[in-house]
Amino acid sequence: VGELQVALGEAERQRELQEAEGRALRQELKDVRDGQRILEKKGSAALKDLKRQLQLERRRADRLQERLQELLAPSRART
Protein backbone atom coordinates (compact mmCIF):
# COMPACT_ATOMS: atom_id res chain seq x y z
CA VAL A 1 0.00 0.00 0.00
CA GLY A 2 2.86 2.35 0.84
CA GLU A 3 4.49 1.76 -2.53
CA LEU A 4 1.18 2.39 -4.29
CA GLN A 5 0.72 5.65 -2.39
CA VAL A 6 4.24 6.74 -3.37
CA ALA A 7 3.54 5.81 -7.00
CA LEU A 8 0.22 7.66 -6.85
CA GLY A 9 1.90 10.75 -5.41
CA GLU A 10 4.53 10.66 -8.16
CA ALA A 11 1.82 10.25 -10.82
CA GLU A 12 -0.06 13.24 -9.41
CA ARG A 13 3.10 15.36 -9.47
CA GLN A 14 3.73 14.37 -13.08
CA ARG A 15 0.14 15.23 -13.99
CA GLU A 16 0.45 18.64 -12.33
CA LEU A 17 3.70 19.31 -14.18
CA GLN A 18 2.12 18.32 -17.50
CA GLU A 19 -0.93 20.50 -16.83
CA ALA A 20 1.30 23.46 -16.02
CA GLU A 21 3.30 22.86 -19.19
CA GLY A 22 0.05 22.63 -21.18
CA ARG A 23 -1.15 25.94 -19.74
CA ALA A 24 2.18 27.57 -20.59
CA LEU A 25 2.05 26.24 -24.15
CA ARG A 26 -1.55 27.41 -24.63
CA GLN A 27 -0.58 30.88 -23.38
CA GLU A 28 2.43 30.95 -25.70
CA LEU A 29 0.22 29.95 -28.63
CA LYS A 30 -2.26 32.70 -27.74
CA ASP A 31 0.56 35.25 -27.54
CA VAL A 32 1.90 34.18 -30.93
CA ARG A 33 -1.56 34.43 -32.51
CA ASP A 34 -2.07 37.87 -30.97
CA GLY A 35 1.32 38.94 -32.30
CA GLN A 36 0.43 37.71 -35.78
CA ARG A 37 -2.85 39.65 -35.72
CA ILE A 38 -1.02 42.81 -34.71
CA LEU A 39 1.54 42.35 -37.50
CA GLU A 40 -1.22 41.69 -40.03
CA LYS A 41 -3.01 44.88 -38.99
CA LYS A 42 0.22 46.89 -39.21
CA GLY A 43 0.98 45.39 -42.62
CA SER A 44 -2.51 46.13 -43.83
CA ALA A 45 -2.30 49.71 -42.61
CA ALA A 46 1.11 50.15 -44.22
CA LEU A 47 -0.16 48.74 -47.52
CA LYS A 48 -3.18 51.03 -47.43
CA ASP A 49 -0.92 54.02 -46.77
CA LEU A 50 1.42 53.07 -49.62
CA LYS A 51 -1.52 52.71 -52.01
CA ARG A 52 -2.76 56.14 -50.97
CA GLN A 53 0.70 57.63 -51.52
CA LEU A 54 0.95 55.95 -54.92
CA GLN A 55 -2.41 57.40 -55.93
CA LEU A 56 -1.31 60.87 -54.84
CA GLU A 57 1.94 60.56 -56.79
CA ARG A 58 0.06 59.40 -59.90
CA ARG A 59 -2.23 62.43 -59.67
CA ARG A 60 0.79 64.68 -59.22
CA ALA A 61 2.49 63.10 -62.23
CA ASP A 62 -0.66 63.57 -64.30
CA ARG A 63 -0.86 67.26 -63.35
CA LEU A 64 2.82 67.76 -64.17
CA GLN A 65 2.36 66.00 -67.50
CA GLU A 66 -0.59 68.26 -68.33
CA ARG A 67 1.41 71.35 -67.33
CA LEU A 68 4.35 70.23 -69.47
CA GLN A 69 2.05 69.72 -72.44
CA GLU A 70 0.57 73.20 -71.90
CA LEU A 71 4.03 74.70 -71.86
CA LEU A 72 5.17 72.80 -74.94
CA ALA A 73 2.01 73.39 -76.99
CA PRO A 74 2.67 77.07 -77.79
CA SER A 75 6.28 76.38 -78.74
CA ARG A 76 5.15 73.69 -81.15
CA ALA A 77 2.76 76.13 -82.79
CA ARG A 78 5.58 78.67 -83.20
CA THR A 79 7.88 76.17 -84.93
Q: Which band does the percent of strand residues land in?
A: under 5%
As a whole number of angstroms, the C-alpha radius of gyration is 34 Å
What percentage of residues falls in helices of 4 or more residues?
over 70%
User: Low-confidence parts, pLDDT < 50 over ≥5 residues?
Assistant: none
Secondary-structure-derived class: mainly alpha
**Sheet with the most strands?**
none
In total, how many beta strands?
0
Mean pLDDT: 94
Quickly count the helices: 1
Report the end-to-end length measured between terminal Cα atoms: 114 Å
User: What is the overall shape?
Assistant: rod-shaped
Defining traits:
79 residues, mainly alpha, 1 helix, 97% helix, 0% strand, rod-shaped, GRIPAP1, GRAP1 protein
Structure description:
The structure is a single chain. The chain is 97% helix and 0% strand. The longest helix is centred in the middle third of the chain and has 77 residues, at 2-78. It has 79 residues and is mostly helical. The model has no long low-confidence stretch (mean pLDDT 94). The radius of gyration is 34 Å and the shape is rod-shaped.
Layout of secondary structure:
Layout: H1 2-78
Summarize this structure briefly.
The protein has 79 residues and is mostly helical. The chain has one helix at residues 2-78.
